[in-house]
Specification:
Sortase, Chain: A; 313 residues; alpha+beta; 12 strands; single chain; 34% helix
Length: 313
């Protein structure tokens, strides 16, 4: 009994396997009864597969075009700004050259004799009256031989006007060298504070930053500058160089006595980036040159003490 059942089962299994191998398992199923599920078969609609790449291609083209337009706009703006800056520098240079040609004779040198028996020869002749004819607020002329600076000095009733005005009152991004308006005695004050721009083209007080290096200061003749007023030449020895905040005791002024001025000078000397060895214990007048650092956050300060006064023959 058991043997027959086993044989029958074995025979049936063999028959089914044979039908599968011969693809005869579904021969008896009507074709209409065979249903194919699109999801099971992972069939993708022809329309959707064709439209998706097209959409991506369209948006990619739009994005590339937008980037191109923005890049072109940035380039045009940058070119415009560069041309404007170059034009501005050229205009200011021409203005200052014209002013200098009126008030200075560069073909004539002058010599000033000092009381101690020494003298100084300047490679130009400054005409103070011509400066006054151009601008009644003219005060004098500064000469810094170490950085080849020869600039007229003015003073008005505020510190804003000459930031964007040349000595002849024309508009100028370079501005002028001017005395702080709060200094009541002007060029004759015990402490003269001169402001000037740090220009990227090297004009005005830009090259004062050279003094931040001790090696520059130590070169022969680099420790001195001059104020030229009418037929008088005043010599100043640089005794302190440092970086200051825009508002600090550096900008103290209108001292009531030489003693307070000398105390001030000693304090400013202690802030110097390096030793200068200049004696300020008997100072009677100090000139402070002030200009912005490159980042405009602080100020480069160069202090000079009056050491000699001479007159041109």
């Amino acid at each position: 009994m058991n043997t027959k059942l086993t044989d029958t089962h074995k025979s049936t299994d063999d028959e089914i396997l044979e039908h599968i191998l011969n693809d005869e398992l579904y021969d008896d199923i009507p074709e209409d009864d065979i249903v194919l599920d699109a999801e099971d078969m992972d069939i993708v609609s022809p329309d959707s597969s064709a439209k998706e790449p097209a959409k991506k291609s369209k948006w990619g083209s739009v994005l590339r075009f937008a980037v191109l337009i923005i890049s072109a706009a940035i380039f045009c703006y940058s070119a415009y700004m560069l041309c404007s800056i170059i034009h501005e520098y050229n205009r200011d240079a021409k203005t200052n050259k014209k002013i200098d040609s009126i008030i200075v004779d560069s073909t004539t040198s002058v010599t000033a004799d000092f009381p101690d028996g020494t003298s100084v020869t300047l490679p130009f002749k400054y005409d103070h009256q011509k400066l006054l004819n151009m601008n009644q607020e003219g005060k004098g002329y500064i000469y810094i031989p170490s950085i080849s600076k020869r600039l007229p000095i003015v003073q008005t009733d505020n510190n804003a006007y000459y930031l964007r005005r040349a000595v002849d009152h024309t508009f100028s991004m370079a501005g002028s060298i001017f005395i702080d308006y709060r200094i009541t005695d002007g060029i004759d004050s015990s402490h003269i504070i001169l402001h000037g721009h740090n220009r990227q083209d090297g004009t005005m007080f830009a090259q004062l930053e050279s003094y931040l290096k001790e090696s520059f200061y130590k070169k022969s003749g680099n420790d001195v500058f001059y104020l030229y007023i009418d037929n008088k030449v005043q010599e100043y020895k640089i005794f302190s160089v440092y970086i200051s905040e825009p508002i600090s005791t550096t900008y103290a002024f209108n001292f009531l006595s030489d003693t307070t001025l000398q105390t001030y000078a000693s304090t400013m000397q202690s802030q110097s980036l390096y030793e200068t060895g200049i004696d300020v214990s008997e100072a009677t007048q100090i000139v402070t040159l002030s200009t912005c650092t490159d980042d405009t956050e602080n100020r480069i300060i160069v202090h000079g003490v009056l050491t000699n006064t001479g007159y041109i023959k």
